[in-house]
Structure formats: structure tokens, C-alpha cells
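re the bet — no i am not wrong, look at it urself. input seq straight from the record:
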Amino acid sequence: PSAARPAVPRGRRAATPPEGRPLQIIRETVRLIADHGFHAVRVQDIAKACETSTAAIHYHFPGRDDLLEAAARWCMDEDTARRAARIADAADAADELRQLIELQTPRTAQQRDQWSVWLDLWAEAARSTAVGRLHTEYYRQWRATVADVVRRGVAQGAFRTVDPEAAALHLTALIDGLAAQVLAGTPEGPGTRPDDMHAALLAHVDAALAAR
């Protein structure tokens, strides 16, 4: 959404960005979540992927929930950093929105993995777990960022006069729904393709936002 790091839920301190062995553990955890699902990932699986022991995993992350929450936070922070870098050189708000749409379209294996993790976190958010609350706060900030881009686009004359919050709600909902359809298929098989998703999103922006 923006260059800012997602807010930390009240009562928690911002964690130092992981590096070294903790970063390796987190990355493997994210990969395993994408492949097998949030609740199917065991500490033993992570230790095997890292070629280490479960004791070494617990040294850095005392409990499974601590590790899964750290993986979720890292995944979200990485996504935020990519968005900030992608829109840094955008010419105007309309270009920023196009860049955000491109970044949200799951074309690459990494993007598909990120979306797989994201969809799993939705289920956690519905259960109001610690990870779910983190996901909810992050999603609130993502939608607020889209609203801010729309608001600046209106001020620049690139977008027509609309309610930025409502426009962000509609666009992010469309992104989510289309991405879920893309992931339900295969990259080369039948179903919604990334190009179809991208074209539909641009068509929506043109129809609902672009100044006439």
C-alpha cells in the first residue's frame, strides 16, 4: 500500500526485521504455508526444509504460533515494500493505481505464493486469532492506501469526483475476487487467467474512475 510499515497491533512492539537463520526459517515457513496451508505446516516440516532441528527452530521462535505470526508479518511487510518501490517513480496517481494493479496480478510463482498465503490468512482473520488481527489491520491500511491514491487522482483531474473510500472498497474487492479465481485454476489451464484479471481491473478503473 504505502511506504509505511504496517501498524503493529496495540500492545505489541514492532519486531526487528529478521535476518540470517531467522529469516531463512521465516521464508521456508511462508513457502510451506503457500504449498500446504496455514494449519498443515508443522515445526518438524519447517526444520526439515531448513535442514536443522526443531530445537533450533524453537530457539528463535519459542512456539509455533510465534513462528506463524512472524511469517505472516514478514510476508505482509515484504508486500508493502514491493508496492512502495513499484509506485516510487509513478508519473501521477493514475499511474500509481496501474502499478498497484499490476503488482496484485498473480503472474509469477512468487506472486501466486503470496496470494496463497494471503487467502489462508483470511480464514485466520475470520477466527479472530492474533494472525487474523494482524491481517485485518494490514488490510485496512491497504484499502486506505488505495483510497489515498484515488483521492489524489481526483485532485489531479485524472479521476472523476468519486467517494475515495467507496472506490477503494469496490476495487480491492474486485482484486480479491479475481485473484481467488486465478489461483483456483492453473497458469496455463482453463479458468481465469492473470491477463484476464488485469484487463478486467483496468476496465473497471476506466469505467468507474477515469475522468471523461
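see?? Residues 72-208 form a domain with the Tetracycline Repressor; domain 2 fold (CATH 1.10.357.10). told u. also The CA atoms of residues 176 and 188 lie 20 Å apart. so pay up
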